[in-house]
Amino acid sequence: MRRMREPTLNPSPSPGDAVHATTCYMCACRCGIKVWTLEGRIRYIQGNPDHPVNRGVLCAKGSAGIMQHYSPARLSRPLLRTGERGSGEFKEISWDEAMELATSWLAPIRARNPDELAFFTGRDQSQALTGWWAQQFGTINYAAHGGFCSVNMAAGGLYTLGGSFWEFGEPDWDHTQYLMLWGVAEDHDSNPIKLGLGKLKARGAKVVAVNPVRTGYGAIADEWIGIRPGTDGLFAFALIHELLRSDRIDLEYLVRYANAHWLVVRNPGGADDGLFARDGEGRALCWDRERGAVDANAVDVAPVVIGEYTLPDGRTAVPVFHLVADRYLDPQYAPDAVAERCGIPADTIRRIARELAAAAFDTKLSLPIAWTDSWGREHASMEGRAVSMHAMRGISAHSNGFHTCRALHLLQLLLGAVDVPGSFRFQPPFPKPIPPANRPGKTRRPDGGLDAAPLGFVHTPEDLVVDAQGAPRRIDHAYSWAYPLAAHGMLHTVIRNAWAGDPYKIDTLLMFMANMSWNSAMNTSETMQWLTDKDESGEYRIPRIIYSDAYASEMVAYADLVLPDTTYLERFDAISLLDRPISDADGASDAIRHPIFDAATQPTDDNRPRDVRGFQSVLLDLGARLGLPGLVHADGSPQYRDYADYIVRHERAPGVGLLAGWRGEDGTQEGKGAPNPDQLKRYIEHGGFWHTPVPEAGRYYKMANRDYLQWAHKLGFVANDQPIVMQLYSETLQKFRLAAQGHGTMQPPDRHRTRVATYFDPLPIWYEPFEHDETSREAFPLSAITQRPMYMYHAWGSQNAWLRQIQARNALYVHPATGAKYGLAEGDWAEVDSHHGTITVEVRFAKNVQPDTVWSWNAIGKRRGAWRLAKDAPEGTKGFLLNHLISDVTPKGDYANADPVTGQAAWFDLRVRIRKSDQAGESAPQFPPLPYREADERPLRYGAALRNLEHPGKSKPNASKT
């Protein structure tokens, strides 16, 4: 027998000849990493132990950043379409040609009507630039990916607490004894959550996971509540009912920090019905036991919270808490009334309510930290509530998600468990005033730019972006009467509306990192048709599409002009407090990425240098060529050399820039200060990040803590140091309801009146998701949702050679009892129908799912030929997307398949039926393969040539096949 040659191994290889501290980009967590290089190649990536986000912890995705950087799917140079749109036929052009062409397309739009440019970005994490650029161009048609990802989570929190779940708050990992995770998958903020869960498990705190599927964090939870999708709000109301019924609430907290005692006018049919009673100076009133109607925010009040009172002007009013108690003590919210619909036994609901109350009120938690509140009252200690909550996409991706999120915040507030020791905590720069001050831009300045950024927060109907007849002015219909609080825009509606010319035709669709022809689209098949459809004259209905991405995704094939982006190790990025901050509850942080490599020097499988540019720098160049205000000097020369120059020198307001660290000409200021020419150098010297601690006396009660608010004001996070009153009852929502009832100068068109009046309830409500009505449930008896695995993030992770070794295909996971009910066996292929379409998939059994729900991993299925995977790659032949079943409009076809308040895409409302298929072995639907050049089919290995290096310089590794 022939003896195999044993490789010579070096058990102590050199870690490399250089190490570079930067920020990961393999998910939204934005951990600190150290990239070790050897002779210009990555040796390995490790977590940065000094970084405040991950403290050195790094997941599989972060480690696999090596293979993301060396992916064969990387784009190499600008491309101009030569064949039909969607064919994937391009020719390479130079950057000069590409920029001249883009300028020639956009300049006439800017001169004619800036709104004819629709600029929509995906997972970019640079909205502080892209939103500002859209404002300078003058288009109202700008949006980011949050509209189909998290907008109702963000809006629900920002209109209630002044902060939100997602990445903008965190449980008090050091002190909580009871944590409820609502709809939390294993992607956003993953490493901090893992670190925190480790702390909880180590000291025996209880973790309860509320999710139809038990994976990831839920798998290590002490209790799993397998809830039916879309019923989380109903479950929350049942818990609220029990807490109110048993008088286990924190009334003192509700009066001191929220608007529980504010008086609400009762005047049915009147223009002031449901508004707060106010004095002549606009201050909200409460009813003092001794003095009657007085300023609700005064220090010396003794307010009532129940009862009906007559105001000095003769009107009748009741406190907010009276309305809360009246609504949620209703028997319809009792555990026995909601148990069947939620799929949770009534006894379990009652027990969870008792456990929440015990953790909040029977566990003594007091920190010996003196602090002063906003009214000057001194406190010797910080009293806590040892119960925390955290929520993510499982809550937000429903058409009732906004109110469900508000229901969770109401539950937290009743327990006194927001930003006190042991509870949910705000991360700087939150909390913000309610609602935040910035409103969406809608009129143009004399220089053609918008009067404000295109995205913002609506306060009243007057802030909507609609025309004189109440019709939407934006191409995505955000900030219209159909979706008034669409704070992140509506990326998921832009392609249908642009195709239909609703409300008008656009000229150019400019997109960045938004895979809208595949995994980021509802109604996938029709979306591809809309992108390629032509009018009666033979012209494309969407005349021009410019697309920027780093990789050969499915969407690249539908572009007319492709602007190739760099990898995250080849450019500067700013992880800014103006954008999506990476702070923790005890400190403010921001960070950068910086180019570790020159893209032209990085090996490729065709041995040609890549000629790519960071999209942010390209955008600034394009803006200068167009002569946009703020991007050129008076003589027309560019204001900024590139994105790095913009990061350093751009000021959003005097002294406020993208980065808060090392400001001032000498770098000694933080938060606010003049631009520092050496700022990026300082960041690189300090590990790529800046962190400053919140003063110890300001780390809790941030909404009304004098030390915190003065500190936040000094750093530019808030406009003043006034307390932020959390809103159990939203007057903003009531103003919209009044408009729908016929009051005010801005009223909805008749077709929207009932919708606005129904869903703009000032107190949280629950309603069936739009695809879950009784008829749909009978025809399609199962819910279908996706989960994200810890080791994948969006489609661009499942092209990664190392991560593909963990999983290269998905299956539809079905509870064994459900499989037996429908005649399915393990490994069968099944046809899955929705009201919108049919897919064919392989079935696997799993008991970690609520029996009326089926699920799969998200975004693993690929279109054949995309991402330069082999033609028979399992992602394309056996992998699939549930997206093919999801319609972009409701079953009635009258509105987008979205939350009626915020426009959030309702991905998880999907209802299906399932049956055994005669077809087996290949998923369906299948689409014509994209003709991208295939990568070499040899195994994509990495590091073999590095293995035996005893010291730097012994040998040079070459191509990516080494």
Automatic annotation (TrEMBL):
Domain 4Fe-4S Mo/W bis-MGD-type: 17-73
Keywords from the named record: 4Fe-4S, Iron, Iron-sulfur, Metal-binding, Oxidoreductase
Cell location: Cell envelope
Protein family according to the UniProt entry: Belongs to the prokaryotic molybdopterin-containing oxidoreductase family.
Region of interest (Disordered), ranges: 429-448, 941-962
InterPro entries: Asp_de-COase-like_dom_sf, MoPterin_dinucl-bd_dom, Mopterin_OxRdtase, Mopterin_OxRdtase_4Fe-4S_dom
Cross-referenced SUPFAM superfamilies: ADC-like, Formate dehydrogenase/DMSO reductase, domains 1-3
Cofactor: [4Fe-4S] cluster
UniProt-recorded name of the protein: Formate dehydrogenase
Organism: Lysobacter helvus
Classification via PANTHER family: DMSO REDUCTASE CHAIN A, TUNGSTEN-CONTAINING FORMYLMETHANOFURAN DEHYDROGENASE 2 SUBUNIT B
Domain of life of the native organism: Bacteria
One Pfam family hit: Molybdop_Fe4S4
Main location: other
CDD domains: MopB_CT_2 (cd02783)
Biased composition (Pro residues): 429-438
